[in-house]
Structure formats: C-alpha cells, structure tokens
Amino acid sequence: MSRGPVGPEAGVGAGPDAGVEAGPEAGVGAGGPADRRPEAVAATLARLRRSTFRSRFHLSASDRDYARAKGRQTIVDHARDLLRGRIGAAAPHNDGRQTPMRGHPVFIAQHATATCCRGCVAKWHGIAAGHQLTDVELDRLVEIVMAWIDTELTAHPASPTPDHPTSD
C-alpha cells in the first residue's frame, strides 16, 4: 500500500508521519532491514520518536502490568505470532486497518514502531510489501517492537507491592 512521498517532500497533511524522514534513505536500520544490532534498533527507535504521531503512543498501566505478569518471553512469542498473522502475508487482509489501537501491549507497540501495516513497514523499515515476510525480516520487526516495550516498561517501573503483615 503506497502512502505517497515521504520525508520533507511529503508536505503538510500527507499522513500521520508527514515531514518525518523514514525508510532506508533516512538510515533506518543502519545495516538494512535485517540489521538487529542494538545500535541499529536504537537508531530506528530514535527516528520513530521524532514522529509526532508515533511518539504519542504509550503503554497503559494495565498493558504494562500484563506485560510484566506474562514475562518477556511470552510477550516475544505474542509479538511474533501477532506480526506474522497481521502483517506477515504478502497482501495482508484489511492492510492499513488490521491492527487495533488497544487490547494488547504488542498492538500499541506496533503503532509506535510503524509495524502496524505493510505500508508503514515499507516506509519506516525498508521492507517492501508484496512478499511474505521472511523469518529474518520478522525477527527484525519483533526486535524493534520488543525494544519499544522494554523502553516503556523501564520508563514506568512497576509499583512496589504493599508489605503484607506477617502473622506470629
């Protein structure tokens, strides 16, 4: 799904990320769409944070509690399954509208990290639509989603649990 020009030439009103440089030409994934090095993931997240649209997404307290209760590996598994099912196909069903805005921490992360539809994946991550995502591409996107979730959990530490009185 083409979204038209990107970057400064996009102009005002050209979509939620108008005026924000994205894609391989802007250095996303410094080593390309398969680059999972921490510094490449961090660079991608930094570019995404410069988007007014992308930077407004944050996990709710209940999403953070859910992620902590399930544990990181379970959320990684959910991310892999949800991304594969929602954007993994060459032409996903309802592309551009298939990712809910709430209901699971991964859904919020998908919008924050531009992994919500194949158009955003192409624009921000340089992975063209029209082919099924490879395992390497899927791993890269899961890595970005999880790095964003990790950042959210770090920025909002868990509340300490109240001390429970002990009985003698």
Task: Report what the structure shows.
The chain is an all-alpha fold. 47% of the residues lie in helices and 0% in strands. The protein contains seven helices and no strands. The protein has helices spanning 38-49, 52-55, 61-70, 72-87, 105-112, 118-125, 135-155. The radius of gyration is 17 Å and the shape is globular. It starts with 37 loop residues before the first helix and ends in a 13-residue tail after the last helix.
Write a brief caption for the model.
The chain has 7 helices and no strands. By secondary structure, the chain is mainly alpha-helical.
List the total number of helices: 7
Helix/strand structural class: mainly alpha
Helix and strand pattern: HHHHHHH
Can you give the mean pLDDT? Answer: 83
What overall geometry do the principal axes of the alpha carbons give? globular
Strand content is under 5%
Q: How far do the termini sit from each other?
A: 66 Å
Rg result? 17 Å
Uncertain segments of ≥5 residues (pLDDT<50)? 1-14, 24-29, 164-168
Q: Percent of residues in helical segments?
A: 40-55%
Total count of strands: 0
Characterize the biggest β-sheet: none
